[in-house]
Write a structure and sequence with these properties.
Blueprint: E1 5-12, H1 29-42, E2 45-49, H2 50-56, E3 84-88, E4 100-103, E5 106-114, H3 120-128, E6 132-135, H4 139-150, E7 154-157, H5 161-169, E8 175-180, E9 203-211, E10 217-225
Parallel strand pairs: 1-7, 1-8, 2-3, 2-7, 3-5, 5-6
Antiparallel strand pairs: 4-5, 8-10, 9-10
Amino acid sequence: MERCKVVSHMYVSIDGKIDGDYMNEKGCNSSGEYYDSAIWSLGDSMASGRVTNTMYHAKADINLNRYKNNDVCKGDYILKADHYHFCFDRMGKSMWESNIFTYGGIAMQNVAVLSSNVKQEYLSFLRDIKVSYIIVDTIEEALEKIKMNYGVHTLVLTGGATINGAFHEVGCIDEISLVMAPYIEGNHAEKGYAEMTQFVNYKYKYHSIKPLKDGGIHLLFAKVEEKK
């Protein structure tokens, strides 16, 4: 089965940090705005990991016990829309506040990407607030279902570091898009582009560079060979 294409799109400092004080500087406003708008020139839907999702917009205070005795239909829960935001959340920990996520001026249907070990009460909660979900065992299977069930051709993966590393490890990043702010973060506590337990030697080749108004740049790379 064919999977959707994946473009990993991240906003980073010169030293590769994906978060930090540099993001609050007025001197990187235009590159930050460019990062947001570029998503919709790179693909037709976006995705993130659970940590990023809960950090920014899935913070509801939900007691799942109220859903414990509900019967839940087996299989995926597919809701169609023009655009989607997929959250890779294996065990179902994101406490969604809404079934819609708006980013860069585009409203998206939220979709949880879950493992078969997720609790039934969490599935009942998602159905109650109309957050779509798919149940998968691997990243590859998720990308196949995303294309088949939602019609997504190019998925823009917006991090964070753990999900970037997981996608890279299994060879599922086709292009890397880095919007680099004109600042050095320098804080060792902040994470870099990807976190992995070991080096994985997929190679990416430079494709293009675009200078931005505030001194930042937009770099594009494409994967050119399989892991040896």
